[in-house]
Amino acid sequence: MNIDFSLLITEISLAILGLTVFTLGLILPAKSSQKGLGTFSLCGLLVILALTIASWGNQGETLGGMYLADYFTSFFKILSLTALILVILGSKNYVNSQIENHLEYYSTLIFATLGMIIMFSAGDFITLYLGLELMTISFIVLTSFRRTNGKSLEAGMKYLLLAGLSSAVLLYGLSLVYGAAGTVFIKEIAGNIAQGYFNPLLIVGLAMLIAGFGFKISAAPFHMWAPDVYEGAPTPVTAFLAVGSKAASFAVLIRVFLGAFLEMQEQWTMLIAFLAALSMLIGNLTAFAQTNIKRMLAFSSIAQAGYILVGLVAANEAGIKGVMFYSFIYVFATIGAFTVVSEVYNKTGSDDIADYAGLSQRAPLAAVVLLISMLSMAGIPPLAGFTGKYYLFITVVQDYLWLVYLGLILSMVSVYYYLRVVLVMFRDEPADPAPLKLGSTASLTLWLTLAATLFLGIYPWPLAKLANTVAIAFLAGL
Amino acid sequence: MLENIFVSSLNWLKNLMAAVELPAPLADMLILVIKLAAILGFILINALWLVYMERKVSAFIQGRIGPNRVGPFGLLQTTMDVLKLISKEIIIPAAADKKLFLLAPLMIFVPPLAIFAIVPFGKGMAAIDLNLGVYYFVAMASLSTVIIWMAGWSSNNKYALLGGMRVVAQMVSYEMPLILSMIGVIILTGTLNMNGIIQAQEKVWFIFLQPVAATIYLIAALAETNRTPFDLVEGESEIISGPFTEYSGMGFAFFFLAEYANVLLVSVMATTLFFGGWLAPFGWTFLPSWFWFIFKVYIMVFIFMWVRWTFPRIRVDQLMGFAWKVLVPLAIANIFLTGLGKYLFLS
Amino acid sequence: MKQLQGCADMENSLELIAFFLLAGSLLTGALMVVTLKNLVNSVLSLIVVFFSLAGIFILLNADFLAAVQVLVYAGGVCIMLVFGVMLVQRKDMRESNPVNRRFLIAAPLTGALFLLIGLVAAKSPWVKEAGEVPENTIEHLAPILLRDYVIPFEAVAILLTVALTGVLLLVKEVKDNGRSS
Lengths: 478, 347, 181
Known about the structure:
Chain B is an all-alpha fold.
């Protein structure tokens, strides 16, 4: 059994980059020179992104189907790498002033991304689970990175305990599925089910899988950890957690549920629809009461998870396309918003919404990006979020009309709490009128996310078409 | 004739059982019980003898005479000591966790006994010829830690507790280099079976092929048996015998003998891994294989005693630093070199 | 009981007895871990649980797995737990593993889940294609780990690196001025 290394180019180069950053950090003598590690990782990641894009057409599977490389994985590889690049670019100021161990910070971020990539390239449960754990453990470390800060440690502790519990549930589900289906390979499970092989234990296993992944995407009722962890973690980590961990888990959900259990569709779509509805309800309604912007964004991200789950309910190529499209635009909106939050925190030391008063006067660019990002999350046309929601909800109009109505109503409702922040930024007078100077790399990130959100809202076809091709190829490859 | 004395007597027993038509599974179990009982006897007698030997060796090193009153040359001294300890009252401290306090000395002989079951004392003389061999040794040996810690904790005494903490820290730390040093040998032989490892040393002992691993093993083994210079666990002058402070009578005797059983055990492993086990040196096969095995084991034991009476006790921070910063990296480097060497020269 | 009578072969019935003994000590140990008031006793019962599990692995001809179970869990994980217990020691160890009233909610829930899974499992058709167990199981491990499962293997390597560095980072001493040494 030979390994086709050309399929592993992203993974191998990411591992090498992570280890190089690590070694460089140990070799470099002065603390001050460690600040260059961020730039170094950024350059390396750009090269890897280019490599990944260049090997788009290079498809196949290696190690007897244990490791897959298809359009679907390439799409999510590009997504997670883009997210990481934007996060590192946008957080240089924050990291330089708030975090002291650069070498661990950057290498752990890179390894977390490696975990995600292993996760959605996995063709069997063992690889999948290890990728998931690599990602989760990296995030536990990253969450508690500001270890002199009580909230950060609390967040790390909570994430550790709950992630451990959810991993246990997930693993139990995987073992039940393995026992019932007789194989850990996703494709073979699908084959066994298609041959009419059915075992009631599969359904118990499925329920546990949904609970385990539900935790990772912070869907209600498995969302309890999200607000505390989002609030306590260093803001760039929060952004990456919200974007990367979620996108990777959605990719795996699609891979497992559509890849292996498509034949058993009627057994699980209702459950997912229920989770989607509950997440939208809880996320949107609880977000009203928040006074801390990171907590508010956390609840909003729970609601977003609900929206994205709708695409999974449809369980067809349009649904997959919706999930992929929305995940991608969600990257830009979320990272834009969190970059503003981290820049403001860096200057004012506060995450309270009240302290955003007059941001439009102090830092107009930041205020505009926050406005656009939030409106995009709320789904106001002509922003990208509207297109994304359209693609998601159009897929279930026929079968789950109530879900569509619920989604629409709650999207309207969500505009209220997003606009509350906007109102504070644009209407209220600042307590301290001095202009808030943004870092140059942070400004670049803000411009990039702003441009992407606007562009994909007005002209979504290239990305939509790409997502469509990938979705069709994914379903055809089953 | 002498070579096969144990194997043939066991065969005679087997034939006897077949003659009285015992059911096969029952006969197998009976044979196993006999083997294990023989091993237990071997351990106990050796432990007794080793206490005497230790006292004589220390006396020799310190220019004293040592025990010389009970029996010829004081040979019966330790037997008498044990008889005395058996007759003493077992005192249980009022605040102790009674069950654990009594359970610990009973359990302390289980890991050594379980490990001796797989040791090849001579050609074809392993009670159980296990393919897992060395791995099984490592797994079982890791359990002693828990038992000594149990003793330390259940005594409910601050010195015992300190000793218990030190046991855990020290034994966990030195388990790493111990295991890593064995991997070099395993790479060379390609088997975990102890007989296989011995047979692979037919031409040259592994002490010559793996000198670094052997050194690391000997140091780590010293620490695993909690002997000077690594006897902080007991440290009579600072924490009054650590975990064993509160034990009296037979409980104390058990721990005391178990220490020597463990010394014997690590010597046996050293002999097997690095000194050719029961293989006769220079082709001197006129003496039986089991004699050579015991002979080599006793030389190893003597080396351990020699070290004990030569070096002073080291500090806790030195202890931990030495394990993690010196032995572990060295052992890992040794694994890489061995792998490289095998790739270059043997394939 | 029916099964017991069905097994005419003595070896099989010995195995069955061993299984019931091991399963019994496993379940008792597991219950004790949860219910004992003293955390130290809980940890020690956990060792009993791991040991019984190793025994069951041996019955299933998975001797390497059994050794791993003893080395990693009974000898490694439990020692770490012991360390944790000692470091967070309470004034009175007898109250260190208290049971609160949530027990009343948790016990029926887990019981119901157990019943559900048990019932479903009992009704399921099982694929029974146990292959012949090779005489020497460990020889096949290396090719499996380092060739077939090389990606998970390497993922574990990186995972352990991340975990180690993360732990070192988080527990590094913090000086009074808020900076680490």
